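Hypothesis: this fold can be encoded by more than one sequence.
Test: take the structure tokens below, design a sequence, compare later.
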């Protein structure tokens, strides 16, 4: 456990509160990709023992791509850190809606953990897990190191998926906007029409 580290103290409050309640295996959960018009929604769950805290963890949106990639590599390479990923594809998003797809991705990410957690900290959503107590934390990716780690894993995993889709559909520039509704993406939709990875129930794609 880091000593004399102000940022660690800030990021570990929720984990320490859970430990005081008797929970020793605590997972953080976050998602990436609720807002895009294309591609999957991805969730990650991450368990970091306090003595294996990685310096520099923060909300993935606050990190530069280079720093985020470096932290991602450290997280997934550390044998003492357990993580799981849940990926829900666009056709399922269209079938059950993005909110339910996000919940499903989170549940799948938790279930993919090699070590079952005793307690789950979730960024911004109430997660109805059948057997594990959960805690919703607004802006949790800035307040909890395990949620911050999950946000990095989810974001990098999804970005890598969209880079692969860029190879398949280079005219859409998925390598730049990752499926989010930027001006470039909207212009591409007008010119080329939707691809099989577009979410056809989303505004701008669904039939009027």
């Amino acid at each position: 456990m880091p000593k004399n580290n102000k940022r660690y103290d800030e990021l570990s409050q929720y984990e320490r509160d859970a430990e005081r309640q008797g929970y020793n295996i605590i997972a953080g959960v976050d998602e990436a990709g609720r807002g895009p018009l294309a591609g999957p929604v991805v969730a990650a769950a991450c368990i970091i023992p306090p003595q294996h805290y990685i310096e520099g963890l923060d909300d993935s949106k606050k990190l530069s791509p280079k720093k985020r990639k470096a932290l991602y590599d450290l997280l997934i390479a550390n044998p003492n850190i357990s993580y799981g990923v849940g990926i829900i594809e666009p056709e399922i998003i269209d079938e059950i809606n993005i909110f339910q797809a996000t919940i499903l991705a989170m549940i799948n990410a938790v279930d993919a953990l090699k070590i079952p957690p005793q307690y789950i900290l979730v960024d911004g959503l109430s997660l109805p897990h059948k057997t594990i107590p959960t805690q919703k934390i607004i802006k949790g990716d800035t307040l909890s190191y395990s949620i911050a780690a999950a946000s990095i894993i989810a974001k990098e995993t999804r970005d890598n998926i969209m880079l692969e889709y860029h190879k398949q559909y280079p005219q859409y520039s998925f390598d730049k906007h990752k499926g989010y509704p930027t001006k470039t993406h909207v212009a591409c939709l007008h010119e080329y029409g939707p691809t099989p990875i577009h979410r056809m129930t989303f505004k701008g794609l669904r039939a009027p």
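The chain has one domain: 6-192. Residues 6-192 form a domain with the Nucleotidyltransferase; domain 5 fold (CATH 3.30.420.10).
Hypothesis status: open.
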